[in-house]
Amino acid sequence: MVKRVTGLGFAAVARVTDRYWVACAIDDSIQYGLAPGDKVDVATTICHEISQHKQPVIFGHASEHPVFATHPTPRLFGFESYISIPIIRANGEFFGTLCAVDRTPSAIETPEVLENLTLFSQLIAANLDMQDSLDLSQRELLDERETSRLRDQFIAVLGHDLRTPLSAIRMSADLIDSRVTERSTRKLVHAIQTSTQRMGLLIENVLDFARGRLGGGIPVRRTHVDDLQSELHRVIEEVRRSHPAASIQQSIDIPTAIDCDRVRVGQLLCNLLGNAVTHGDTHFPVTVRAAVEHNLLVISVTNQGQPIEPERLGLLFQPYTRSEKSGYGGGLGLGLYIAAEIVKGHGGSISVVSTAADGTCFKATLPLHGVPHLSDHDMAE
């Protein structure tokens, strides 16, 4: 475009430093002898002067020009017509020049030529600024990803290391519970057991979250399970012991065998039920239902109380999402996220509906016999 606008045979974008004129891009139809990457001593060029006064230089007939007829640069490089426009970055930094030359005279000293090449130089400067901004954003993104990766690794290591002392506390509490008879002492022991049980759940949630972030999702190992009902009953009783003030009603009817991860489905119910008894109105019971409907396992947990704001419903299954009313000790905000990941690992779906009339209901739907493997072609379609 520069050659077309000026009619000159050589055009270049150059980086101009204190020492060198460095060719960045060149279009040469007069075999001027320069290629991208070539360096020229900047003191021998007119661009050296442009870097100081930051003004365009343009002339069409050097040998007859009152200033450049005696200037050493046209004679050194053998050109008659010349135009060079400074490239100025948004921060005022001088980058280099957009220039064109030819060995023959040319009528280029017109406002149109100067205006067009000035616009071209501004476009180059804007592109350089945009590229720098993009590079900075990419570096910041990489730094943030690395920070996130290290944070997740730290969480995983911390959660793993907390298991050992917690197991010791649990075993000690169980041993004391088997030996004491005083009611007040047993009450304290039961408080310790309840707290360690809650701590264990928190640690497992943290570990699962870290595994999911570091390894592409929470692992789900599906097997043929005949006694899922007993696992769900066990979870409900465990939550009852941890929340003695809560009333839990249950309807568990799973008459068929299911291909699932028994432990993970129990964890799914534990997280949903724990969330319900924590945030529900204690004057009303929490209802747990599990049944097989249309070759699907459906698990739902419903509690009464203040409905969840519509704008928050879509955020509930994201990590670290907590109710503003939870306060200190309300959990890490990972339970529902992990529940959703467990459902996802089974190829199922999870949803929530919350109204003042019917309460808040979380429903997880899982296929009974797994999800068939999809080929890349099937996934593409």
UniProtKB/TrEMBL annotation:
Keywords: Kinase, Phosphoprotein, Transferase, Two-component regulatory system
Alphabetized GO MF terms: kinase activity
Catalytic activity reported: ATP + protein L-histidine = ADP + protein N-phospho-L-histidine
Taxonomy, superkingdom: Bacteria
Enzyme Commission (EC) number: 2.7.13.3
Domain Histidine kinase: 157-370
Record Gene3D superfamilies: 1.10.287.130, 3.30.450.40, Histidine kinase-like ATPase, C-terminal domain
Pfam families, alphabetized: GAF (PF01590), HATPase_c (PF02518), HisKA (PF00512)
InterPro entries: GAF, GAF-like_dom_sf, HATPase_C_sf, HATPase_dom, His_kinase_dom, HisK_dim/P_dom, HisK_dim/P_sf, Sensor_HK_Regulatory
Name of this chain's protein: histidine kinase
